[in-house]
Amino acid sequence: MILKEQHLMDDTELAYFENNTQMTPEVADALIENQITQFTLPEGLALNFKINQRDCIIPMVTEEPSVIAAASHAAKVFSEEGFTSKTNIIGMIGQIILPDVCQPEEIIDKLKANEETIKQTAALAHPSIVKRGGGLQNIDYRTISDSETGMVFVTLHLIIDTKDAMGANIVNTILEGVKPLIESLTMMTPLMSILSNFNTTSCVTATCQVKIEKLPNKSAFSNLELAERIVAADRYAKLDPYRAATHNKGIMNGIDAVIIATGNDPRAVEAGIHAYASRNGQYQGLTSWTIKDDMLKGEITLPLALGTVGGAISVLPHAKANLNLMQVTHADELAEIIAAVGLAQNFAALKALVSEGIQKGHMSLHASSLAIQVGAVGEEIERLTEQLKTAEKMNRQVALEMLARIRK
Ligand code: NDP
């Protein structure tokens, strides 16, 4: 209701949310093969976010307790200045891979000399994206040698602006359209042509800062010590891949939740982000926290190829309603929000980890799902949850014993 009053939802969307409407069997059947039923996940709202000077409510779909609470908490910490988020999106990368190339320089020179024809062919392969102001922007060339077999590959990177679509199908259609021309120019058969999910040409950077004296802090550490510990933890995630994987998993807690809520492709985003985390030759944490003067500053840069149209987004009414809720119409606006969510999620995790640890807050939020797991129903769920929160140990055995006592 509040969301409708604030014009973040129309009547249809409100009815859709209130009635928890499933997609129609036709839509479900159109999306996947061998469809038998639908699988639901809870959706919640992350609050307190101010991104690029705009207040923003962020729908998140996740099965994990504490994710939304942590994001909202972190957003509040940075609410004075909010998050600044900026995209640097040139386009998606489509690869055409030529194997077993004997004279790579000659092949590249030939392709370079025919770039104008390649661009014209690309435009003919997908005229509607050109009409929208997108399409093939430029071409990069890479030579890659396999030291084991001695084989040399020449790979073309077609940088394609897909506007507000994530663009996988657009890119693949253009690549297929251009492939015969590449074959005739090089007299070679490409090994394959497919988009790359390591989309370094679609990056977004989010930053935030807070005065160290304003850090909420219930720990035994001083505020400055807490900030220094956050910086040290961030630095450590650059050094140790074992820690970096978990550091980045925490970031993805928030990112995936918004990706799913908006009908985007979480596998594509995950693949791109983890490849980006390894771009320096070692898998590293994606954030950077520093102290300057009396401020704690955070920054994250991520490759994010997202859509506000196309794929499942245009089919799922829920995804469209969630984009409306965020008041987002363009893909770059969505990327800006998602990068800020990732940074907020990381701050919440680091702050908890270097002070009281995450388990206290996490387990307290886990109590209600544990109550359901052991069979509590109706009012029992709330009673058991409350008892579990104050218990010395929270596990299945304890929960079962408590439930038995409630039922006596
Ligand atoms: P679509 O094939 O649905 O293409 C989007 C279409 O939306 C465009 O062709 C365009 O058609 C239309 N459109 C309307 N408004 C706009 C706008 N403002 N900007 C751009 N396009 C607009 O989806 P994508 O090409 O985005 O592909 C995404 C899907 O591909 C996802 O489902 C993903 O899971 C899947 N996929 C992912 C792969 C990967 O990541 N490796 C591989 C293969 C598929 P028109 O101009 O004609 O109106």
UniProtKB/TrEMBL annotation:
It comes from the Bacteria. InterPro entries: HMG_CoA_Rdtase, HMG_CoA_Rdtase_bac-typ, HMG_CoA_Rdtase_cat_sf, HMG_CoA_Rdtase_CS, HMG_CoA_Rdtase_NAD(P)-bd_sf, HMG_CoA_Rdtase_sub-bd_dom_sf. The keyword Oxidoreductase applies. Gene3D superfamilies: 1.10.8.660, 3-hydroxy-3-methylglutaryl-coenzyme A Reductase, Chain A, domain 2 (3.90.770.10). PROSITE patterns: HMG_COA_REDUCTASE_3, HMG_COA_REDUCTASE_4. Residues 374-401 form a coiled coil. Pathway: Metabolic intermediate metabolism; (R)-mevalonate degradation; (S)-3-hydroxy-3-methylglutaryl-CoA from (R)-mevalonate: step 1/1. Keywords: Coiled coil, NAD, Oxidoreductase. One of its GO terms (biological process) is coenzyme A metabolic process. Its EC number is 1.1.1.88. It catalyses: (R)-mevalonate + 2 NAD(+) + CoA = (3S)-3-hydroxy-3-methylglutaryl-CoA + 2 NADH + 2 H(+). Belongs to the HMG-CoA reductase family. This is 3-hydroxy-3-methylglutaryl coenzyme A reductase. It comes from Vagococcus silagei.
